Amino acid sequence: MDDANLEKLLNQHQWLHNMLQNMPSPYRSHWEIQYFSPNDSIAMQDEQVRYFHILVQGELKVEHLLAEGYTYTIARLKPGQMIGDIELNLNRPFACQIEAISPAILLAIKADVYQQWIQEDAHFLAQVNKQLALKLYEMAKQSAENTYLPLRDKLLRYLYDLVKHVNFNEQVAYITTLPRLEMANQLGVTVRSINRVLKELKEQRIIYVNKKQVILNEWSRIMIEHELENKEQK
User: Where are the domains of the chain?
Assistant: First the structure.
């Protein structure tokens, strides 16, 4: 990539400018811009890492394929997050598969160039270490919740995250068409278990279900928030 295109991206995204501000000039031309459509694969589990990536735009999902054929969603990546940092630090293949949820733009640099670069850029190395620490922290929380929280609590937290910032003065309801399989993968359970708890919540008039849609309104948020708060106080 030429400097003009890189500078355009840096001007559009202040966080990216801050991240790459000390990158030595000889490495800047090695960046490539890669574009992905929804469901496109960015990385395959067990494949060798050829590129280090920074997500600039869009959303990605990180999944681990289990031997039994199940898929477990590890994380969703937002702009500013890195791909390949863990594997390149350990010299290991990808532990998970990564694919685009929405149209995505990524900056990519070849793995060997990345390894040379971080030896000369202490500022960026600090950024990498911060993200590694954050990933470890989030994985520890997720592991504890998946192990010890009842499924109802996990699903309520998941649904609450969807609506906690929704302005119900501007919209009557929040409708999610996320497939039940996707919910199950994110929570590490079976679709049958998800359906059982959704049925309970529907019967209790906490949520509404219309075919494949799960519908939440302000009353849903109040009820979910109240139940979660009561559980935390016990």
Answer: 3-147, 149-233
